[in-house]
Amino acid sequence: LSCYCDKKCCLHRNIPLSQMQQNNQILTPKYPLPRDQTLNSQDRTLESVSRRLSNVACQTNRNRHDNRLHDNSRYHDNNSMWHDPLLGVDKKHIANSGDSDSQQSNSRTQAESFAEFTTDVSMNYLSFIWNSPEFIRKLLWAALFLGFFIYSVVCCWKSFSTYFDMPTSTKYNMYFEPQKKLKFPSITICNMNPHNKNILEKEEHRAMKDYLARSESSKVPWPIEVDSQSPQLQRKDYEQFNVKKYYRDSGQKLGEFIEKVTFFEKEIRTEDAFIESFTTHGRCWTFNADGSRKVNRTGMDFGLSFGLNINQSTYPNFVTTAGVKVMFHNHYEPALIDEYGMALAPGTENFISLSYERVRNLKPPYGDCVDEASWDPYKNYSISGCERNCFTQVMVDKCGCRSYYLSKVPDREDIECNLQEEKECVEELIKQYHAGEFSNRTYCKCPDPCIAETYLATISTAEYPAKNHGEALEERNKRNNVGNGENRTVEFYRENFMKVHIYFEILSIKEVEKVMSYKWSNLMGDVGGQLGLFLGANIVTIFEFIDFYLRLLCSRLKKHNLDKRRRNYFKSNREQILPLLR
Asked: Quick one: which H or E segment has residue 324?
């Protein structure tokens, strides 16, 4: 049976015999040495003696280890004690002492391994704390490490909190692309007077006049006189009144309202340039309604120019302001003239320069933008389209109809509200909508679009026509009979006519983009900087700890497998081994 010399036994190698005897580590054995290990006269040096005595200690320790693996049930039960005449000690005491020795050996091995690890790891704190011989020095380094560790944990916690808050910042970009054509905006033009006094005074439109005189939502700033001698209006007069037909008849015809249209240095027919549209200002006209027109040049000559005749002679006396409202919008957005319309006065020539701006918002989880409309007719999503959709659906749900200027709701019966429904239901609904009472509805929650396109306008105005030019126009109109019977004098132009020029000032795209202000790379940089500055740690330190514990685990597994093989060997060769142990 060969002697197994483990690490504990081998510590006795190369130790002088005098020192071993003083420390009571290895003394003369209590039993005779084996024949092959008796000391020869020529091997009397201290080194030879210590080595041979160490081998004896190894054999003794090996015998104790094998005795612990012995099945005590063959002799007595586990609680009994039996005496070994060879060693002169109790076997049970040997087993217990062997277990404690093994545990002490394992703990010393782990401590030595960790001490060696602290000298190699990149965190120098551990080496100063673990290997310093002075207690005060250990205590100071431990306190310093603990303070910096707590501060680093707090800083890392703040960094992670900032990252999961998902903050954003705004970035401004300017693109200049002269070869690329910019999309020309859709332009909606409305006369500030939606009512023609000659139409309103007709008997068939008495219901509308009465409605305007009594309704709060009509926004009439001047009282309307109603003929008290006329027959009393009945409910059916309101129910049979077609509101959209009235505004179509009362509004100005295209040829009378808009004159001499030119676009990109080419004169085009008015009917080809504008289409009819309805807003809260009644009958209006929209240019480039499909968004197909584009330009690649700047300046007044490469934009849209036209003249407008508001015809103040048809204004009722309760209309206090003369002029038009112009709105620039995308073709997929509704024209909200009341909210975003730009007012132009008669007797002026207006120069409106445009700039294009694009806003990019973030999608979840950093934002809540949407990029598609949930319903027609607006194929692209916009906040104004969503709000108009909300108002229309609420109106259809509560009133069973929609106002004349609203678009049809998909999959719902298309019924336009008559004057009675406008009076009884729509008026109250408008008040509730402006008070924000429908914001809790699903289809009234309007997040930002992922891409929002806007046109910014700058206007400059001059008087039109100039004095001498007005006189020349007046003489020419008389000579050529221009104006469909109207006497177009200088005063007429000053009261009714205006000229408008709309063009791009610069072919550039101003892009406002929301970006993630605190990305994963920022988080790693902050956390790594804090750990490196205060603890001297980095990403390699993590792998060093992982490597240390993996090696420690592997050594334990190897020792466990070795002990298992020893026990299996002992069980299979018990009959041959036991006589040697007695």
From this structure: strand 324-329
